[in-house]
């Protein structure tokens, strides 16, 4: 199969699965975050397999199609934030890979990840409280939520790395022949 055709075929299947996960997140309320995270992991898979340009097109197609099809638009916005985080982290990794090798690269990459996450999370938390919560929260509760968000990022990122290293590497040979 031609390389472009393979990318388009795999991208189409991954878009379909991502949309199904977004819709299932609306139906199965107890697993919403898990399903949205699973949908967003496809952004990283497509980027690692086919590059940033195809990954950006894949991400945009998912967000647009999700807004058109998914019943709960808030979940599509949540997916968009998760997918954007993965897109920016993968782009940062590709930029760092071109630079000189350093023993501190892994710790620097974690700093970059937290900067990307906090640039997205903290403004939303502090300036759009009414969007996420039923009323204004005290500074202490907002601080607790901000700290909880850092822990949530660590869990999300560890799960993403597990999916990329173990699950995707196990199945990619079977799916991308």
Short characterization:
The chain has 7 helices and no strands. By secondary structure, the protein is mostly helical. The mean pLDDT is 87.
List its salient traits.
single chain, mainly alpha, 7 helices, 86% helix, 0% strand, globular, membrane, transmembrane helix, transmembrane
Summarize the topology.
Elements: H1 3-27, H2 32-50, H3 52-69, H4 73-98, H5 105-127, H6 129-132, H7 139-175
Low-confidence stretches: none
Total number of β-strand segments? 0
- Which word captures the global form? globular
Tally of helical segments: 7
What is the helix fraction of residues, given as a range?
over 70%
Describe the model.
The model has no long low-confidence stretch (mean pLDDT 87). The chain has one domain (3-175). Helix 1 packs antiparallel against helix 2. The protein is globular, with a radius of gyration of 17 Å. The chain is an all-alpha fold. The N and C termini lie close together (8 Å). The chain has seven helices and no strands.
